[in-house]
Design brief:
alpha+beta; 2 domains; two-stranded antiparallel ribbon; 5 helices; 4 strands; extended
């Protein structure tokens, strides 16, 4: 399956990337195609989430790696899966936040909850306004 990023324009769908242009140019005239349309996640909001991770990571002293911190925060927000091992123990794994695995709505909920979790768990003296101010400079 080939993926192409298209945007709704005045005259129909318009290719957004060189790869999408190439893909569309390769389609044969007169041929019917089945298309699965999925609304793309907001890339700017994705960058905003990682700015939040970077800023709050720098405000804490517990985690040695930003990736471990991001996974912990994601799980504390309720986005995780559990795996029961053959020994009977349970391992918890942070859910993927990739564009293909998480909707924009869920991602926005994760972002909002992540601020609350950070304040509650690691930044007790901070407010949401404090975090928002830091992010305006990130």
């Amino acid at each position: 399956m080939t993926k192409a990023i298209l945007r709704k324009g005045v005259n129909g769908l318009v290719a957004e990337t060189p790869g999408a242009v190439e893909f569309l140019m390769g389609l044969s005239f007169g041929t019917d195609y089945n298309v699965n349309v999925v609304e793309s996640r907001n890339a700017s909001f994705h960058r905003k989430f990682f700015a939040l991770i970077s800023a709050t990571y720098d405000m804490q002293e517990f985690f040695d790696s930003k990736e471990a911190y991001r996974r912990w925060l994601t799980m504390k927000c309720g986005y995780f899966s559990s795996i029961v091992c053959p020994s009977g123990s349970t391992v918890f794994v942070a859910d993927s936040i990739s564009f293909a695995k998480m909707s924009q709505e869920d991602f926005e909920e994760l972002y909002s909850t992540a601020i609350d979790v950070f304040i509650r768990e690691l930044g007790e003296k901070l407010t949401r306004d404090d975090i928002d101010k830091v992010l305006t400079y990130a």
